[in-house]
Amino acid sequence: MKEESIFLDYVGDTPRMRIIQYLIEGREFDYTLTDLLNARVSWGTLNALVPKLLELGIVVKTRKIGRATLYRINQENSVARQLRDLYDNLLLEMLDHMEKGMGKKLEVPA
Length: 110
What we know:
By secondary structure, this protein is mainly alpha-helical. It has helices at about 5-10, 15-25, 35, 45-55, 80-100; strands at about 60-65, 70-75.
């Protein structure tokens, strides 16, 4: 079953954007290439796109554990920050829309 994503609705549901969304959602963590398969892309596509994202500076290598290299979204890259901000703003807009549709405010824990 395909998950709905407001972010992918706006930027396009492509393998590149699925990888970027996955990294934005887990922005505090770093991932191996095997972990990135959870972004619903094939191994071949992943191996083709990650070097391009590294070259663009959107993704950075963080460390190596054994033979595995770990990656994360580059919080210092202006394009990556703008994509992250777009993701966050779209989620906030969706939550606001859902809140208005429910007729009551969502309670935010303190």
